[in-house]
Design a protein that fits this description.
Length: about 600
């Protein structure tokens, strides 16, 4: 549990030390002033007592005059010059004594003392008057003695107070030093922990914060640890050169930091179509699938530029209802997406694609999340572009090979389009049946379906273009187009692997070697059966045979759609994988639309 602020505790301990020092200095000056004041007062008391004794002497003088004047009754005593002279001196002493008494707030009968000379001639005894003045002198002497005692005790009191203050200051300094020593050791532990993070050996459990300031350091270290781990994971992902490998590894990194539920890439082709690529989603079933294409000007993505900030949509439902309706947005809403961030991916100020990060919650993202994702896009930009370029090169190469076959064979360009699209349609429908069917598999079977007969370039024209049924010998030669095609693509695979260390053409090879095999083992070239036949070959077998049934050849007429469906059904479980035929029948209406659109 984190305690109170170390800084605040240090403040109060330091304040206690300063208070002790201040008390020591304060008491020193206080006692010094008190001692000086007491001494001044004591000296004033001595002077006052001397004045009072002078007043007593003057009373005695007046008493002597009174004794001599008593023999002359006719004389008015208080009117004589002698009385007035002595009284004038008495009055002057009285004023001095009276001022001292008033200054020190000493109570006395001021009027009585002032009138003692007149009282003497009015019949009052001189001894009584002298005794009263003597009482005042004794009172002042007692006060003086008390002051002198205090003067004597002040050094002792000052020493005791200073001793206590010094002791408290020492204790406070000791506590402060212990606190700083303990805190410095904990800071050393914190930086040792940070060093362990830098060395790739974090041990967060060892370090536990105690003070608030230390807790802030701990939080900073945890953030640094997350950033270091993130950077290392990001560096590792940069070694993955295909989007299919990159996205699944990138998704948990992003999800841990900002809670994303879906991430995806889309590329923009030369016709400005935005084509959905690889996506990873927690929904379990991706609605906006790879290959989905829509012109950028039919979306709000055309408002984004290379210099634009990331676009944050806080409420996708509101966006769809009030800003812009599009099929991709509808599919995302069906998948559960409610908010998103979109980043353009650019090269030479041209948008090549987009990176989408989505959440199933509204208003899930903040500006700081966009900044974090911007760093990711910046770091992985060239990895993404490399993947894009490689994919485009392979796709163009595959199309070039397909065009080569098309120019040599009876088959038309539409045959290649129909087989490729039908193979992709079947693969999309079989994702739940076959876990190995990934987005990458679907895209590659679409690309490489056109290469299934690439080996025909090695077959003599007299056999390949023969306008009649082949003889058994000719058919055996025709069968070799499978091994020829496999050999060509494997050589291409080896060349690509030498430069990229990646296996790009596995699906193409499986499609070539498996599309003439049969589920019951009666096919060629290897006579494989059942699960021994590669999945891509099994899917392409259905697509290729169906299109052959629907197409006209020099040696046969085209079958109707219904007859082709019937023949396909007859081959279920013998020629074809039953599950793939079932998937075909589920999409039968879509297949019909496809053939109406791309008929010869």
């Amino acid at each position: 549990m984190v305690r109170k602020s170390f800084r605040r505790l240090v403040f109060w301990v330091s304040a206690l030390i300063l208070a002790g020092i201040a008390v020591t200095i304060g008491f020193f000056f206080f006692y010094s002033n008190e001692r000086r004041s007491f001494r001044v007062t004591a000296n004033e008391i001595r002077a006052t007592n001397q004045t009072l004794n002078q007043m007593i002497a003057k009373i005695h003088q007046l008493n002597l005059l009174k004794t001599s004047w008593d023999q002359q009754p006719a004389i008015e005593y208080t009117e004589t010059d002698d009385f007035k002279a002595i009284y004038e001196l008495y009055k002057k002493d009285f004023d001095t004594v009276s001022g001292f008494l008033e200054k020190n707030r000493r109570s006395t009968n001021r009027v009585s003392i002032e009138n003692y000379p007149y009282a003497l001639f009015e019949g009052r005894e001189a001894t009584v008057i002298v005794d009263e003045i003597g009482d005042l002198i004794r009172s002042l002497n007692k006060w003086r003695e008390e002051l002198e005692e205090k003067i004597e005790s002040l050094p002792i009191n000052l020493f005791v107070v200073n001793l206590i203050a010094v002791f408290l200051s020492f204790i406070s300094l000791f506590i402060l030093s212990k606190l700083f020593f303990g805190f410095s050791r904990r800071i050393e532990t914190a930086f040792a922990h940070f060093g362990a993070l830098l060395d790739g050996n974090p041990n967060v459990e060892v370090y536990r914060p105690v003070w608030k300031e230390e807790n802030r350091i701990h939080q900073t270290i945890v953030q640094l640890e997350q950033r270091i781990r993130f950077d290392r994971e990001l560096i590792e992902t940069q070694n993955l050169q295909t989007l299919e490998d990159l996205i699944p590894n990138l998704f948990p990194i992003i999800r841990e930091r900002i809670g994303a539920d879906r991430i995806a890439f889309a590329f923009v082709d030369n016709l400005e179509n935005v084509i959905a690529e690889t996506a990873v989603s927690l929904s379990g079933k991706i609605k906006l699938k790879a290959g989905f294409a829509l012109n950028i000007h039919r979306t709000t993505l055309d408002k984004l530029g290379c210099e634009s900030p990331p676009r944050i949509i806080y409420d996708l439902e509101y966006h769809y209802a009030h800003v812009h309706q599009s099929e991709p947005t509808r599919l995302l809403l069906e998948e559960g997406v409610r908010s998103s961030i979109t980043f353009p991916i650019c090269l030479n100020n041209r948008i090549l694609g987009f990176f989408f990060v989505s959440s199933f919650s509204k208003a899930a993202f903040r500006i700081m999340d966009a900044e974090f994702l911007k760093e990711i896009v910046s770091s992985l930009k060239y990895t993404i572009l490399n993947s894009y370029i490689l994919q485009q090169v392979i796709a163009v190469t595959a199309q070039t090979f397909a065009d080569l076959v098309e120019k040599k064979d009876f088959e038309t360009g539409n045959h290649i389009v129909r087989v490729s699209r039908l193979a992709r349609m079947l693969a999309e429908d079989l994702t739940e049946t076959f876990p190995e069917i990934t987005t990458k598999f679907i895209r590659e079977i679409f690309w490489f379906a056109s290469l299934h007969d690439i080996g025909k370039v090695g077959i003599a024209d007299s056999i390949l273009l023969k306008p009649a049924k082949l003889t058994p010998e000719e058919f055996e030669i025709m069968k070799t187009h499978v091994t020829i095609g496999e050999s060509v693509i494997r050589q291409m695979q080896r060349t690509l692997h030498r430069f990229t260390h990646l296996e790009f053409l596995g699906v193409a090879i499986d499609a070539i070697i498996g599309h003439h095999e049969k589920w019951n083992g009666a096919g060629y070239p290897a006579g494989k059966k059942g699960e021994e036949i590669p999945l891509a070959g099994r899917i392409l077998a259905v697509a290729d045979v169906f299109d052959a049934l629907m197409s006209e050849r020099p040696y046969k007429k085209a079958f109707s759609f219904e007859k082709s469906i019937e023949i396909l059904s007859e081959g279920k479980g013998s020629h074809f994988d039953p599950r793939i035929v079932d998937a075909f029948f589920k999409r039968k209406e879509e297949v019909k639309v496809l053939y109406d659109k791309f008929k010869d």
